[in-house]
């Protein structure tokens, strides 16, 4: 019997702010199955949140809250010394903000995926991971928690009984421990689209990825993150979507908790 594969393709959206326009939200939505929408802390504002929710619903794309650190200037990519209590509070606050727009537009919130430094900190810091997972669970235990594959955040969600989605990245390189190479280091990003696509296909179908220093890393790919703000983001989204289909991979969202 031929083995079947399926994966969710997600993208970070709603990153514009006021007069500043970022990303290619409307153009990229036809090629993804879920959207992580910024909630105003690292990017986005109320009007952008509303517009992005409407676009996602029009394209029948699953909607997720994308909470980040309160750092617009640094786009949420700089670490901050937040306590677990603060991580809980800011996560719950941002989920609630986006969920308000989703409900007002007749939709349903599907998942939560932390952004940037908050995401990376929660991947390796159990206390922060527990706090974020607790915020998601307290808000709605039926939500899916997206986190770095095999990370502390995934374990925290599973411990509470949340449905979790192990996330892998199309255009990022990996370290031997399964963490992402820091953006501050050389070769953190894969600049060749074909190399990025080959990496994704391998992670989805073979369950492993080559680390930056060489050793293979076992990895589970429930959802693949592509970025929507690059110059060739739309073309890449279209291409990776088509290649996955050609490889016999079914594109579908991660099912929420029954």
TrEMBL record:
SUPFAM superfamilies: Glycoside hydrolase/deacetylase (SSF88713). GO terms for molecular function: 5-oxoprolinase (ATP-hydrolyzing) activity; ATP binding. Keywords: ATP-binding, Hydrolase, Nucleotide-binding. It comes from the Bacteria. The keyword Nucleotide-binding applies. Its EC number is 3.5.2.9. It is an enzyme of class 3 (hydrolase). InterPro entries: Glyco_hydro/deAcase_b/a-brl (IPR011330), LamB/YcsF/PxpA-like (IPR005501). It catalyses: 5-oxo-L-proline + ATP + 2 H2O = L-glutamate + ADP + phosphate + H(+). The keyword Transcription does not apply. GO terms for biological process: carbohydrate metabolic process. PANTHER family: 5-OXOPROLINASE SUBUNIT A, UNCHARACTERIZED PROTEIN YBGL-RELATED. Forms a complex composed of PxpA, PxpB and PxpC. Belongs to the LamB/PxpA family. This is 5-oxoprolinase subunit A.
